Amino acid sequence: MIASHLLAYFFTELNHDQVQKVDQYLYHMRLSDETLLEIAKRFRKEMEKGLGATTHPTASVKMLPTFVRSTPDGTEHGEFLALDLGGTNFRVLWVRVTDNGLQKVEMENQIYAIPEDIMRGSGTQLFDHIAECLANFMDKLQIKDKKLPLGFTFSFPCIQTKLDESFLVSWTKGFKSSGVDNACYMEEMRHIDMVEGDEGRMCINMEWGAFGDDGALDDIRTEFDQEIDMGSLNPGKQLFEKMISGLYMGELVRLILVKMAKEELLFGGKLSPELLATGHFETKDVSDIEGEKDGIRKAREVLVRLGLDPTQEDCVATHRVCQIVSTRSASLCAATLAAVLRRIKENKGEERLRSTIGVDGSVYKKHPHFAKRLHKTLRRLVPDCDIRFLRSEDGSGKGAAMVTAVAYRLADQHRARQKTLEPLKLSREQLLEVKRRMKVEMERGLSKETHAIAPVKMLPTYVCATPDGTEKGDFLALDLGGTNFRVLLVRVRNGKRRGVEMHNKIYSIPQEVMHGTGDELFDHIVQCIADFLEYMGMKGVSLPLGFTFSFPCQQNSLDESILLKWTKGFKASGCEGEDVVTLLKEAIHRREEFDLDVVAVVNDTVGTMMTCGYEDPHCEVGLIVGTGSNACYMEEMRNVELVEGEEGRMCVNMEWGAFGDNGCLDDLRTEFDAAVDELSLNAGKQRFEKMISGMYLGEIVRNILIDFTKRGLLFRGRISERLKTRGIFETKFLSQIESDCLALLQVRAILHHLGLESTCDDSIIVKEVCTVVARRAAQLCGAGMAAVVDKIRENRGLDTLKVTVGVDGTLYKLHPHFAKIMHETVKDLAPKCDVSFLESEDGSGKGAALITAVACRIREAGQR
Ligand code: ADP
Ligand code: MG
């Protein structure tokens, strides 16, 4: 008993010495975590070089785009055939993916040999052979009459299913290797210079085996690595692969043993012919030696097979050499994977990355400790990532089928979405037709005979003169009809100090007042005026007042304005058909606190035109693209049939939002426009406005997104409560999502903020929907504007017209593309007009005061 204990002790000591000896000898092969992090850093640089357009040609790590743009999301289904050309044999697979939420994958496969002569023969021969095998296989499965999509992507050996984020490492590639030799991952498109487009992600095949070919690994490569390289078919190439691949693992061990023997550190300095022959120490031997419970005994077996007569020490040393070589392989792998994870993490900007790595290959699967060491090292190198490893079951074949399945699903879904969006994309002909119809409707609104039934009302405003710069004085102005109700004090100066100075205060109009009685609404307005006068220290002062009232009104004079109908969410009772000046005056009298001289009621479009006209005498058109949309312009008096007189011009408030209310745009309206209209306060009314303006664009987008989701084309088919909520998709989000400098990540953040969990692909789709909807709005608006400017030109019998359009409205001002698209459309559809656009600074508020100032000037001149 005692003796055996002693013996065991003795052997442990001895083993310990041997291990130390080998460890010292192979000091250079044992990489510390600092070294591995340094290698990860270098690999990061190489990845960037490979992705960059200018650096790519000379980069050693090529980072090849695969054009596989999405990983499976679990909704793909169907039957597929796959070919797996992974080794000396090749397989034909039939895969059925059922989309029952569980994503079951059924498989049948058959291995076919590729005869030597065919493998070395011509490509045609090889593919003929493959076709023959395929026919045989389909015969056997009795699927010959089916036309199944075929996946033939052996370079893409495994795809992780169901998980959004994954990348994979292949331990099997090419025709004969069983090495650890490549990896791929999903990269942001914006980082892939070689492929056009910035949206989404594409799988990058890194070809990482070539890492180090430019000398980046020279300091860690050992003499054994150099020897392997020199004796290889491709010296100087694939240097990283040669350090980590299973293909070279046994050979590395052999070279080390030979060198140690030559230095008389092993085998008593004796060598055998077998040990000296390339390839006799196999990677399988490494696995076996490290795997056996009694690895030392296994080492002895291998060494004896090699014609050696090993001592116990030799066996212990050999065992240790194997450990060091395979550990280095796992560590280096971990270092490069760490670089990839770091990059994905930075791409996604996440605090903590959760990622799954799909792995395939025999070293990973068969070596007894490789996987464990790789996992452990990687977790040490990237402690801020949660990494899951997934062995791909039959990665190569199933992978090919899954790639096909994904491609088919994506193509199908893309087609379905495009078909839905098609009617929202207007052709030039359609836009010209919109312009033509607008012209017709304008004439119908102007004409006495048809005015009553015309939807585009073309209302006279009694504004006939624009500011000439001589106006002066202090004026009060009210701005009602936009998002905010405001009271303003405007000081207009002439002469040297010509200009406009404004003070204003915003007041809210509570929903219950908007939907209450007219008296309540106007009492509230007067209350706000009183508050404002007190706030300005002007209590009791009586000033001329201009009232911007942005609803369709029939005016009989500048200071008489009969509300025809509420729009944009207003609904106070007892106002329609009444003169708003009277309603305001009555409310002022009810309060008995101050008196006001209501000089002018104007529309916000008119105010905008006036404001811009103060700066630019060519400004004869006003346009609003905010909550609602409307336009006005200077029409010839002879055409304004509702007002007596033939001389001069008068500004006409078109109320173009109602364009289409007689059905004349029905062929352009989509089911989404109809849905938005139906749920609005004024169903059936303001159809043109509902296709253009800020109050509705977000809702159109939301309706489209719901439709896509219901049909499983978005958000993985899951409709969230948030998405069902009216109004959540505000138009400002359209602007944000379409902003050019915004990465998709930020789009996802916006969607997340809206309670919509999206994948990267989802965010691309949402962005596209926003683009299509906003583009249509801008084009429709442009078509309408083209009709207006062309009419002015024709009125005046001019070949060309130079005109300025004063514009106001947050959608126009803040949307990143709206204005540009609108301008282009006008230019295209009204080529004979030279149209400039001038943004008004607070058109509706300032404009009312300016009109009041003009009216006061004319009144005073008349009195004189
Ligand atoms: P109004 O037309 O009511 O006088 P605005 O011109 O300020 O007021 O327009 C307000 C509308 O503009 C809102 O209803 C909203 O739909 C839209 N909007 C607000 N912010 C943005 C933005 N960043 N981009 C595009 N549209 C916006
Ligand atoms: Mg406004």
TrEMBL record:
Domain named Hexokinase C-terminal: residues: 182-406, 621-854
Record's GO cellular component terms: cytosol; mitochondrial outer membrane
Species this chain originates from: Sus scrofa
Top EC class of this enzyme: transferase
GO molecular function: ATP binding; D-glucose binding; hexokinase activity
Task performed by this protein: Catalyzes the phosphorylation of hexose, such as D-glucose and D-fructose, to hexose 6-phosphate (D-glucose 6-phosphate and D-fructose 6-phosphate, respectively). Mediates the initial step of glycolysis by catalyzing phosphorylation of D-glucose to D-glucose 6-phosphate. Plays a key role in maintaining the integrity of the outer mitochondrial membrane by preventing the release of apoptogenic molecules from the intermembrane space and subsequent apoptosis.
Swiss-Prot/TrEMBL catalytic activity: a D-hexose + ATP = a D-hexose 6-phosphate + ADP + H(+); D-fructose + ATP = D-fructose 6-phosphate + ADP + H(+); D-glucose + ATP = D-glucose 6-phosphate + ADP + H(+)
Pathway: Carbohydrate metabolism; hexose metabolism; Carbohydrate degradation; glycolysis; D-glyceraldehyde 3-phosphate and glycerone phosphate from D-glucose: step 1/4
Topology in the lipid bilayer: Peripheral membrane protein
Classification via Gene3D superfamilies: 3.30.420.40, 3.40.367.20
EC assignment: 2.7.1.1
Predominant cellular place of this UniProt entry's protein: cytoplasm
Chain ranges of the Hexokinase N-terminal domain: 418-614
Protein name: Hexokinase-2
InterPro entries: ATPase_NBD, Hexokinase, Hexokinase_BS, Hexokinase_C, Hexokinase_N
Subunit structure: Monomer. Interacts with TIGAR; the interaction increases hexokinase activity in a hypoxia- and HIF1A-dependent manner.
Repeat in keyword set: yes
Cellular compartments annotated: Cytoplasm, Cytosol; Mitochondrion outer membrane
Gene Ontology annotations of biological process type: glucose metabolic process; glycolytic process; intracellular glucose homeostasis
Keywords: Acetylation, Allosteric enzyme, ATP-binding, Cytoplasm, Glycolysis, Kinase, Membrane, Mitochondrion, Mitochondrion outer membrane, Nucleotide-binding, Repeat, Transferase
Similarity comment: Belongs to the hexokinase family.
